[in-house]
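Researcher: Quick test of sequence recovery. Tokens follow.
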């Protein structure tokens, strides 16, 4: 296992370090006849990365991308659907080809079948080369809440009240937040060749510590990171406050070797 954990002194430096990690892995994945594949996460934590990649868009190779999740039940074009969020925050700023960006189909008549098709599409693309991740304050990855099977695949999940309340800031009221989503499973995420996780703020410190130095357990979905062979974790604004000091290597961040 290769686990690199870095504390960034600012959000700009967090974004630049994450961009270094993502760009290096995308370029390493380039092969004749196949586009490198990027896994896209939404939420606030990856935003510094996307902003850094937008500044360095000339370094991005042509690629395919797959988003982690999508709400069920939102109408097409809803501003808080993840299809729209990905378009607004990733596709347009990075100058990506929207035809090469996939988001789970939250409007599918049979969402469970759509989940299986999504996994099949990822496999047909050759798998995800580098997956961007955030982490929830309860340790969730994507919409895999505590208790999710570590080998779970893309499927329909019911959102917990804490997750709905956390996401209510994006909607006019809690009642407008969907109750279900279509999400990549932990097994789907784990199949990516490399993982880059970003976390910002002291509110994430307990989840980060549980994920990286606690037991591997479905009760902390992000603890599956401990089993993966290539993980880069970038933390800012107190997100690493509860980690053991020996886990941290600030020199790697300074040298730009992430």
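Model:
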């Amino acid at each position: 296992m290769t686990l690199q954990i870095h504390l960034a002194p600012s959000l700009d430096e967090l974004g630049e370090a994450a961009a270094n990690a993502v760009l290096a892995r995308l370029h390493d994945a380039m092969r004749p006849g196949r586009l490198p594949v990027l896994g896209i996460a939404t939420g606030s934590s990856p935003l510094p990365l996307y902003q850094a990649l937008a500044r360095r868009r000339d370094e991005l190779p042509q690629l395919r991308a797959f988003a982690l999740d999508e709400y069920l039940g939102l109408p097409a074009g809803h501003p808080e659907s993840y299809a729209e969020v990905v378009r607004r925050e990733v596709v347009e700023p990075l100058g990506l080809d929207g035809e090469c960006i996939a988001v789970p189909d939250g409007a599918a008549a049979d969402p469970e079948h759509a989940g299986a098709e999504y996994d099949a599409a990822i496999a047909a693309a050759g798998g995800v080369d580098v997956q961007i991740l955030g982490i929830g304050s309860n340790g969730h990855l994507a919409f895999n809440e505590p208790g999710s099977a570590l080998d779970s695949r893309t499927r329909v999940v019911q959102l917990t009240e804490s997750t709905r309340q956390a996401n209510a800031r994006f909607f006019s009221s809690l009642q407008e937040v969907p109750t279900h989503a279509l999400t990549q499973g932990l097994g789907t995420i784990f199949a990516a060749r490399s993982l880059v996780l970003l976390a910002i703020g002291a509110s994430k410190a307990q989840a980060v510590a549980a994920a990286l130095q606690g037991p591997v357990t479905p009760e902390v979905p992000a603890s599956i990171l401990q089993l993966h062979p290539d993980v880069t974790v970038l933390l800012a604004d107190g997100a690493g406050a509860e980690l053991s000091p020996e886990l941290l290597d600030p020199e790697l961040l300074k040298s730009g070797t992430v």
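The radius of gyration is 17 Å.
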